[in-house]
Amino acid sequence: IGFDVQDNCALPPRQQSFLVDPAGQNLVREFLTQYYAIYDGESRQQLLEAYHEHATMSLAANYLTNDSRNSPTLRLNSYISNSRNIIRITERESRRRYLRAGKLQVVSFLSDLPKTTHDLMGCAVDLLVFTPSMIVLTMNGLYKETTTNGNPMRSFHRTFVIVPNAGGGFCIINDMLYVTNTTKEQEEKAFAAALPVEAAPAPAPPAAPPPRPRRKTPRRRR
Amino acid sequence: MAEVIAKNIDNACETAEEFTKIFYKQVDNNRHLSSKLYLDTGLLVWNGNGINGSDKIQKFLMDLPASNHVLKTLDAQPISENLVSNKLSYLIQACGDVSYQNDDTKKPFQQTFVIVAVDGKWKIASDCFRLQVPYS
Fold first, then answer.
1. Which chain A positions have a beta carbon within 8 Å of B65's beta carbon?
2. Measured between CA atoms, how close is B95 to chain A, in angstroms?
3. B83 at the A interface (CB within 8 A)?
4. Cβ contact (<8 Å) for A18 and B74?
5. Are A172 and A55 in contact (CB under 8 A)?
6. Which GO terms describe its biological process (chain B) (predicted)?
7. Chain A CB within 8 Å of residue B15 CB
């Protein structure tokens, strides 16, 4: 005779995307497409327009646990040296310093990170807040470093807090990024959708026209 | 002014440390109490599944297998105060490994919270949990 212990403990199936409001779908897609066209492009300087004057940005990086692979491409030196992991960085002064504040500092910091190509099609995107005064969206996915030896792939988790700006568009006021190595499972499925993001089939439009309070941003300067 | 901002940065970090200690202890050991950490109108997005409201969050969490979270990386930023109903609010990112009752392997996870100060207590306005797995 056995015991009636919980047997069925599978995890709920995962979904690629969550939208707190379907009306936010177009804005999120346009924002990410435009942002990463610049971020993955020649110069990240053009992202200046995408950030609020008092924007803050921080990066934290860490290695995967029990990763037995041994390759120089797995080294995260260019991230770890800037990592604001407050479990390790315990002094207030250092914690303040590792938080990049003001759009000039933020964009100059981003410009120094390795050049990338993101797998936007394989990204999980969650829209957590969508109100006229504030948008919060989180991404989970991977990118390839394009000018690093061996073109290593990295896994990232990133959150943007976005607010309306004076010009009738939007800008990023908080940007928080986590970088680690990709797992083998992630690498096998990486860039599986070979289509560029612009060529993706448009998802079904929301039932009602989205209340677009402002124009989208960031806009690419030519 | 600069003094206030610096203090707020310090406070965001120290609150994040305290908050995550309590949060993961409750989720791993006292999950039936977890809903108290969320706003009544709080939102949990668990691997892309959205759960609205602390009552539903409680039920969802209770149905997950027993867990053990180990935090490896933590980061926090103040959110501009006029954004979340004029309340003090912080953005917190916690990353580490989680293992579940049905499977001893350590799975990397990343979790981002927006917490707000309401009547002298910190409450989760939104909680986004993602396992580090392929999503395509």
1. 6, 9-11
2. 8
3. yes
4. no
5. yes
6. mRNA transport; nucleocytoplasmic transport; protein transport
7. no
Distances B14 to A101, B59, B76 between C-alpha atoms, Å: 19, 30, 9
Per-residue tokens: A202: 């448009």
CB–CB of B13 and A119 under 8 A? no
Interface test with B, best of A68, A93, A109, A161 (most B CBs within 10 A): A161
Beta carbons of B102 and B127 less than 8 angstroms apart? no
**Cβ atoms B26, B33 nearer than 8 A:** yes
What's the predicted TM-score (pTM) here? Answer: 0.89
H or E element, residue A38: helix A25-39
For residues B5, A92, B120, B115, the Cα torsion angle rounded to the nearest 10 degrees is: 80
Residue A222 has pLDDT above 70, yes or no: no
Model confidence pLDDT, tens digit, residues A94-103: 999 999 999 9
- Give the three-state DSSP class for B41: strand
- Mean pLDDT taken over chain A: 89
Q: In chain B, what residues touch A185 (CB-CB under 8 Å)? A: 133-134
CB contact under 8 A, B47 and A12: yes
Give residues with Cβ within 8 angstroms of A202, minimum separation 6.
Answer: none
- N residues, chain A: 222
Q: Phi and psi (nearest 5°) for B81?
A: -70, -25
Put simply, whether B62 touches A (Cβ < 8 Å) is no
Considering CB atoms only, which of A18, A157, A163 is closest to B95? A157
Q: What are phi and psi of A148, to 5 degrees?
A: -95, 145
Contact (CB, 8 A) for A18 and B45: yes
The answer to whether residue A82 neighbours chain B at the CB level (below 8 Å) is: no
CB contact set of A14 (below 8 Å; sequence gap of 6+): A124, B47, B48, B49, B131, B133, B135
- What is the pLDDT at residue A142? 97
ipTM: 0.95
Which contacts qualify for A94-100: CB closer than 8 Å, 24 or more apart? A95/B9, A95/B10, A95/B13, A96/B6, A96/B9, A96/B10, A98/A58, A99/A56, A99/A57, A99/A58, A99/B9, A99/B77, A100/A56, A100/A57, A100/A58
Amino acid at A215: R
